[in-house]
Write a structure and sequence with these properties.
This protein is mainly α. The protein contains 9 helices and 2 strands, in the order αβααααβαααα. It is globular.
């Protein structure tokens, strides 16, 4: 008997089905993570990267990103946040508005980002976790607008991971390596300049 292969469900459909199960009054961050299951890591990375695009959020986003990144490296089934974050309440109508805005954009992107070059899920999770953890260091570089490039890179990695797009994932990881190398070179140059002036 041939094994049953579960078809890939687009992220936009996952979010739509989430609304059907949402309580009427409010939801918690913990409830969202429980309902998203294996998709929770990708969704969390995507949301934090979006927040990281805003000015002044770099240090906070950098710290928050380390939590799912480390848990991905440890191959956890889903991310776990401190109770003070997991128990945070969100009005369900606000969640509905957010999903209604996000779904059309996701559907357009899903016409291009789709399952290709599939890789072993657990291995992919660990690699993504390692790369995201390395990228978090870039958020702490005190250079104006230095948060934009790592945030966009993490968004692409999250989308590739969510949609099981190995092509986009490979390109995104290569871009991430470039970002990390440039950031490391910039820091090294800055330290060298400070030492030169001090001497």
């Amino acid at each position: 008997m041939d094994p049953v292969i579960n078809p890939h469900v687009p992220t936009s459909e996952i979010l739509r089905s989430l609304l059907a199960e949402a309580p009427v009054d409010f939801v918690t961050f913990g409830w969202l993570l429980d309902k998203l299951h294996t998709r929770s890591f990708g969704i969390v990375l995507l949301l934090l990267a979006l927040i990281g695009l805003a000015p002044g959020t770099s240090p906070i986003v950098g710290l928050l990103l380390t939590i799912p990144a480390i848990q991905m490296i440890l191959a956890r089934e889903s991310p776990a946040f401190p109770r003070i974050i997991a128990s945070r309440r969100f009005p369900t109508p606000r969640l509905v508005r957010l999903v209604d805005r996000a779904v059309p954009l996701l559907r357009r992107m899903e016409t291009v980002i789709r399952p290709r070059w599939k890789t072993p899920f657990e291995a992919t999770k660990r690699v993504v976790g390692l790369v995201v953890l390395a990228l978090t260091s870039v958020f702490f570089i005190p250079i104006p607008l230095s948060n934009i490039v790592p945030a966009v890179t993490i968004m692409l990695i999250a989308l590739a991971y969510l949609e099981e797009d190995g092509v986009l994932l490979a390109l995104s990881l290569a871009a991430a390596a470039g970002v990390i190398l440039v950031a490391a070179f910039t820091v090294w140059q800055s330290v060298s300049a400070v030492r030169f002036m001090a001497s």
